Amino acid sequence: MNTSTYIPLTGGKKPHYAVLDGLRGTAALAIVVFHFCELIWLNYSENPIGHGFLAVDFFFCLSGFVMGYAYDGRIPQMGFKAFFRARLIRLHPMVVLGSVLGLFAFLFDPFNTDPYANGVLLIVVTFICSLFLIPMAGLPERAGALLPLNSPSWSLFMEYVINIVYAFLLCRLNKMITLVLAGLAMIWLCATAYRAGTLIGGWADVNIMDGFARVTFSFLAGLTVYRFGWIRKTRIGYIPLSFLLLLTLVFPYFSWNWAAESAVVIFVFPLIVSLGAGATAEGKVRDCCIFLGRLSYPLYMSHIVAIWSFGNYYAKYKPGGWQLFAIVFIGTLILTTFGYLVMRYFDEPVRAYLNRKRELAPVAAQ
Hints:
There is one protein chain. This protein has helices spanning 18-38, 54-71, 75-107, 120-131, 153-168, 175-196, 208-227, 238-250, 257-278, 283-302, 304-317, 321-365. It is mainly alpha-helical. Helix 1 runs antiparallel to helix 2 (54-71) and helix 1 runs parallel beside helix 8. The longest helix has 45 residues, at 321-365. It is globular and about 55 Å long. It starts with 17 loop residues before the first helix and ends with a helix.
């Protein structure tokens, strides 16, 4: 998931892409709804937001654009240590909190009959791996998820990997080589989609390589958009672009599904990033976009703990009709509110504290 901040490359103040912030929030909300729905409709072709998982590919594309914006030309001056410390401060507090929340949710889920069925040692090892973002698909109850206590963390693992590749390699490449690599990654992505029939892979031990294909292409696509300056000034604002983004998540399944998903990731998402970077937002719309951008990462990393419990509840009681709609609707509102509280009282204060410590460290060393 994209969580980069916009850092000026020069002394001048660079623009803040508020609409991109808003679109990141839209994608995070769509993921919450998708995770509810995928436990109701096990057949994705019946799921009303059956392609919701593609929001992660949008995150990866946005991440490539923003990483180029924030760090191209800076890493040689700031150094690897400062770069990785900045990324850890930005990303890892929520990795830790998500692991803790996931552990408590797993142990105290009222609809999970025996959380200790596979032994305490396995739970402890899984928790430690989750804290350090080490893939370890050890809990059978979690369908082979790479990070079963907080399963969306798989995309953070991919984000960490591509950040390392960016720091050591991609930041040194010119735009033409970046474009060539994106073309090669596109072939890998299409081959992956064709083989699996879908691009949903990456989150589990059996399809981890699919995740590498997804993050490699989309990150390079976003980086290519930035480096070539493919930013289209447009009057299309946040709401129309959000509607376009949501359309890519709800289109129906058909026999050439793999090709349709590939086309969305290859063409539509880079286009949305391009248009979003060139769009403007004013007044309350701008405030809303910035708020959604702040909310997106804490929401993404904290919501799944309740979704797993919902899945156990649904499997046991099978609610339907308006009752089920109310559960999903109210559940999404509650999880969004919880995400806000996590943002307000954990993520932002902890990052602010760690950044202050980072700024004071050179002074203290003198």
